[in-house]
Design goal:
3-stranded antiparallel β-sheet; elongated; alpha+beta; single chain; 9 strands; about 180 residues; 4-stranded antiparallel β-sheet
Length: about 180
């Protein structure tokens, strides 16, 4: 499965390019834009498996780093560096989009919970795909006028926006930002 958030043909159509001459440039920008979106939102969007050791503060909810959680393969309790670790029966917890919820006997201690789970989207949300297309197009066009903030055409001055990404796209991505957990 491709890990990029959009395709060259989607971006080419959005921009209105008729030729494939700049396809390698667009592919490189898409790759960088995908990484930028994940970094900006502190999220991995596409589905993957994770193994996460967490502190157990004793409450009934353990928030996981990646979301949406789609499956929990196993939950194991123990003390770091010591054996044996004990598997937790799945009757003792359930999972939500972002958390593991203990039904009884929530564990306490540093690094005592090891969760193996699957999280992310099988199909990328359209807002993220669209953001990738728009940012890629923005960066492609900006690359044609590097360091140019304005230019004089006849008697008029054309001023270019020099933000890293369009403000409307940034606002969309802000809604998908994940809190960062230690």
């Amino acid at each position: 499965m491709a890990r990029e958030f959009s395709t060259v043909s989607e971006v080419r159509a959005f921009i209105g390019l008729k030729t494939t001459d700049d396809d390698p440039v667009l592919a490189a920008i898409i790759l960088r834009t995908t990484a930028w979106i994940e970094n900006y939102t502190s999220r991995t969007f596409l589905q993957d498996t994770y193994s996460e050791r967490r502190d157990a503060p004793g409450g009934d909810t353990l928030v996981l780093r990646h979301r949406p959680v789609t499956a929990v393969a196993s939950v194991v309790l123990g003390n770091p560096g010591q054996a044996p670790w004990t598997a937790v029966p799945n009757l003792d917890y359930y999972f939500t989009e972002s958390s593991l919820v203990w039904l009884r006997n929530p564990p306490r201690g540093r690094g005592q919970v090891l969760v193996n789970y699957t999280a992310g989207y099988e199909v990328l949300p359209w807002e993220i795909r669209d953001a990738c297309v728009q940012i890629t197009a923005w960066r492609y066009k900006e690359g044609r006028r590097v360091a140019e903030k304005s230019k004089l055409v006849g008697n008029e001055t054309i001023t270019y926006l020099t933000d890293a990404v369009p403000e409307a796209v940034k606002k969309t991505l802000d809604q998908w930002t994940n809190p960062v957990y230690a």
